[in-house]
Amino acid sequence: MKKAIPFRKLGAQEALFVELTEKSKGAVQLVVFFRVCKSLDIEELMKGMEYLHNLHPMLRSRVEKNHHTYWFCDVGFQDIPFEIKRDALPLNYQEEFNHLGGKILELDKYSYRFTVYVHKHGNVKWIAFMVSHAAIDGRSALLLIRDLDRYLRGDSGYESSASTMQKSVVEYVSSIKHLKKPQLTISNDNYAFPKWPVEQAANASLRRGCSIYRRLPKKSCDHLHLLSKRENVQITSIYNAIAIIAARSLPGFHSRVELMLPINAQYLCKRQIDPNVIGECTTTLTLSLSPDDTSLNLLSLAHLIQRKVYLQLRNGRFFEPPLKPDYNLVEIENMAKDFCNAKKYFPSGICVSNVGEIMEYTGPLTFFDFGVVMTVQTHGAHPIMLVTCTINGEGVFVFGYCEPLVSKESALKYVKKYMETLRDLSESSDLHISY
Predict the structure, then answer these.
(1) Rg for the chain (alpha carbons), in Å?
(2) Element (H or E) spanning 407, and its range?
(3) pLDDT band at 11 (very low <50, low <70, confident <90, very high)
(4) What was the pLDDT predicted at 322?
């Protein structure tokens, strides 16, 4: 029998994500729901899913461990687990996210699975992917929806193509001369900022990843975009500022905080990474905010965050695991085990990822009209993670948290404060109102 040949070695971040998934009850698994808006039967969808699987190597990926962890891209579509649910409509997102997030991917066998939600008449109404974030990030998941939609509509003008990350994202970013490693890391016990206390400490086996989403009407989003232009502040900076202001409602909030912002590495390595690549292509900025910063009103805080992001991008300082490219797997395993242990604090602050307009990634969609994306938060790294996007002009805000480190009551209180602040701003004629 011919011996399988590895595609490549995992980067440190990818290897850490694999270990977190295995050791922290499915942590950082990416759960993606998309709603079907046109007649689609199961047989037709399954043909499209097999097409996707055969097109993109990372959908055929699995991991093997030796002294390092390696990608192998040789998994057949027949080996991908899937579930067809006929009794789960209308969709209860929170319940289904919890259900899917609790199904831990067997990464030595496959890197994704999917669930199909079927109407009583046999038509597909929702499809949910659960993918390994080590293999596929949120941006890539949107491209998968794009390619599936193109297949289903029989777009003859679309030429099938596939692109993969030939190196890990850390290697791409590190190859850019002006980009530097940060001085402080998420796992540094001597980190200068106060640690955010959890409500109830629990080890990974007792944690549950949870998610809530809310929507903002197109009219309100349009007003926010007009406001951002008038105030010369990016909409993503406004979302980031509201994330900090809403955090004042959480138990244990400290006025000296940090804000973690995932960044698409394609913007940093434009000529090196294909825009259509399917893989893990995310790096991260971490901003430090002082008590003076967090006491600012909303728009002032948004401007400040925007300046801090610009300075960090200019200085090339990004978060990455405190490991060398030639990392030792034991180091990775020990770091993941540390995340599993019960702690009285969160190692990092609130995480906000602004995807932007989904149609900029997918183009016009025929079969899908709404979707939500969130990672399973059982690593216990952040009190709250927020993913924001716009679909056909409508704002979508997805909040992730981990019980019992954060209670459902606290999470709902945070969501309520965030959306109230957002709506007040979108409806206000006074652009300098203080929040």
Answers:
(1) 21
(2) none
(3) confident
(4) 53
* pLDDT of res. 255: 85
Q: What is the amino acid identity at position 111?
A: S
Distance between CA 9 and CA 369 in Å, rounded? 37
**Cis status, amide bond into 404, omega within 30 of 0:** yes
The model's pTM is 0.91
Task: Give the list of residues 6+ apart from residue 187 with CB closer than 8 angstroms, or none.
Answer: 321, 322, 335, 338, 347
Strand partners, 197: 345
Concatenating the DSSP letter of every residue in 113-144 gives EEEEEE-TTSBEEEEEEEEETTT--HHHHHHH
pLDDT for 245 beyond 70: yes
Could you tell me whether strands 208-216 and 394-403 are parallel, antiparallel, or unpaired per DSSP bridges?
antiparallel
Residue 208, strand partner residues:
403
Measured CA to CA in angstroms, residue 383 lies from 105, 141, 378, 417 at distances of 24, 24, 11, 15
For 72-87, the pLDDT digits (tens) are: 999 999 999 999 999 8
Quote the tokens at residue 82.
Answer: 């899937």
- CA 221/CA 225 separation, integer angstroms: 6
Which residue blocks in 4-157 are alpha helix, DSSP H? Answer: 12-23, 42-55, 93-101, 138-152
Residues 409 and 183: beta-carbon distance below 8 Å: no
Residues 6+ apart with CB under 8 A from 10: 18, 63, 68, 69, 70, 71, 134, 168
Per-residue confidence (pLDDT) for residue 276, from 0 to 100: 84
What are residue 72's phi and psi, to 5 degrees?
A: -120, 135
CB neighbourhood size of 29 (10 A): 29
CA–CA dist 110, 80 (Å, integer): 7
Is residue 104 a contact partner of residue 46, using CB atoms and an 8 Å limit? no
Nearest to 186 by CA among 344, 325, 336: 336
pLDDT in tens, 318-341: 555 455 667 788 888 999 999 999
* Residue burial 116-126, b: 16+ Cβ < 10 Å; e: rest: bbbeeeeebbb
End-to-end CA distance of the chain: 67
Residue 122 sits at the vertex; the CA angle it makes with 119 and 125, to the nearest 5 degrees, is 40
